[in-house]
Amino acid sequence: MDNRTIPRFFVSIIADLTSDIKNDMNALLNAHTPKGRSKSPHVGLTSNVLPEAQRSQTGVSSDYVQKADHEWFVLRVTYNRTQKAHGIISTSAVQSYMPMHYVIKKEIGKKKRILQPLLPNLFFVYATRETVNSIIKKKGEETSVLKFYLDKTKPLEDNGKHPPLTIPFTSMTNFIKATSTDSEHVRIVSAEQCHYKSGDIVKVIGGEFKGVTGRVARIAGQQRVVVEISGLCLVATAYIPNGFLETVQNQL
């Protein structure tokens, strides 16, 4: 298999089928179930697809719907125990996402494309808070392998801690679109690196980032679209030409 056809992110999903969002979500690659089937060769994470995967290299498809009692939570892996964390999540029958990206490295004078986590030690899980609590408090573990990534912009809860950071469904969908290509030019950026051209919200209407919504900025000498996950990170696409951009009226 050519390395350009290898999925660069990993999702495990238990979900209801729907056709309502077929045109609103981008392809994830290489469908599998959380238990008992083949796994990605990269870091052992099971994977699945979002709608439109029939147009991807793999030709497989699976849809899911937004659930009123579910939210996207960000979980932090403690002590770099990513493999152990994956084992816990993959046996919990929940939808999860860990964005990956390719980096170019030189080894013995040769350039190699290496797949690495885009956000090291972070998992995204779509479930109820009760379910995520049960995953975090896994029996038999001396110390927690996973912990909530907390939203420090919100007041303390009764337990004396800030509430978990949650990501709106549409924002997470947009984030997945932006981070699910195999381009090595996708990157995490700081606000200082983003030289925004205007405050306009744009939608990418062509190319591998089609469907991504964000703000246009000049980063590392190139025009890119920046996607923000509030309270967590900014993600920049690869170069996007003007012809692939369309200004949209609705705000993010």
UniProtKB/TrEMBL annotation:
<dbReference type="InterPro" id="IPR005824">
    <property type="entry name" value="KOW"/>
</dbReference>
<dbReference type="Pfam" id="PF02357">
    <property type="entry name" value="NusG"/>
</dbReference>
<dbReference type="GO" id="GO:0031564">
    <property type="term" value="P:transcription antitermination"/>
</dbReference>
<dbReference type="InterPro" id="IPR036735">
    <property type="entry name" value="NGN_dom_sf"/>
</dbReference>
<keyword id="KW-0889">Transcription antitermination</keyword>
<dbReference type="GO" id="GO:0006354">
    <property type="term" value="P:DNA-templated transcription elongation"/>
</dbReference>
<keyword id="KW-0804">Transcription</keyword>
<keyword id="KW-0805">Transcription regulation</keyword>
<protein>
    <submittedName>
        <fullName>Transcription termination/antitermination factor NusG</fullName>
    </submittedName>
</protein>
<dbReference type="InterPro" id="IPR005825">
    <property type="entry name" value="Ribosomal_uL24_CS"/>
</dbReference>
<dbReference type="GO" id="GO:0006412">
    <property type="term" value="P:translation"/>
</dbReference>
<dbReference type="InterPro" id="IPR008991">
    <property type="entry name" value="Translation_prot_SH3-like_sf"/>
</dbReference>
<dbReference type="InterPro" id="IPR006645">
    <property type="entry name" value="NGN-like_dom"/>
</dbReference>
<dbReference type="GO" id="GO:0003735">
    <property type="term" value="F:structural constituent of ribosome"/>
</dbReference>
<dbReference type="GO" id="GO:0005840">
    <property type="term" value="C:ribosome"/>
</dbReference>
<dbReference type="InterPro" id="IPR043425">
    <property type="entry name" value="NusG-like"/>
</dbReference>
<feature type="domain" description="KOW">
    <location>
        <begin position="195"/>
        <end position="222"/>
    </location>
</feature>
